[in-house]
Design goal:
It contains 8 helices and 9 strands. The chain is α+β, with helices and mostly antiparallel strands.
Amino acid sequence: MGSEGDECEKLAAEYSLQYARTENKPLGKKWNKALQLAREGSEATHYLIMGSDDLISQKMWEFFCNFEGDFVGLKDYYFYDMESRRLLFWHGYAEGHHRKGHPIGAGKLISRMALEAIGWEGFDNNATQALDFQIDKRLIAKGFIPQLVTMEETGGISVDLKTKFNMHRFHPYRNSNMLNFTEIQKKAPELMEIINRY
């Protein structure tokens, strides 16, 4: 479900992915529409929530393909600024944060059964930000507790690409540190190839 322009649509076509375009605001409505399209377009047992500007390595993909529970999500993440070539590693929600114990927004794998339990609607339609937590609360209310994993535990990595088109700009987050961008090359060279192409 894209809104960034033609590049996302071209990338989706290249990998034979179903693609639909909609406005980015309100974000909650966009994500609920994406869930509805996923339900109609597939009989899969699990669905992976990723942003259109997120990349996932082959090893992490394999981890998700082999997961058999109802709800798993990532604790930490990489953010890469395409313009400055800076890489940020975010360790996840720190102690004292109201979302501590919850997965981040991208990299949530949810079973079909769990999504059916919440009516394939995980978000407030009018929400424009801070959506990461909303679907968690709905799933938890139905008894689906998230299993949290680090990128390292999956064996792979995932990275959010920041460009001038992103709603949320690249900046140092609390509980994060800067790394050399070559870290991506070392851990998932296939992702660096994609980044260099776009």
